[in-house]
């Protein structure tokens, strides 16, 4: 199994990460926004195109991040996103990384 260069932990969703990068680079992620909550958490959301059909209404995945940058939760309306991990949620996270690395 592949492991993270940084943490050496096993990467279980490597395909999801690669798909998320493609989504961001293809411009399929839009309307990225963040809501800062009183307890230091940040709720990040965006509009992301479906992977199987560009005609369907865009998905609205979101991610909750703690003040120490730990991912608390993620959600998407797609079938895979019901478990909290999908390429759409990952694309939101990758968009945040891309936006803050400028």
UniProtKB/TrEMBL annotation:
Origin superkingdom: Eukaryota
GO MF terms, alphabetically ordered: zinc ion binding
Annotated keywords: Metal-binding, Zinc, Zinc-finger
InterPro entries assigned: Znf_SWIM
Record domain SWIM-type: where: 61-97
Protein name: SWIM-type domain-containing protein
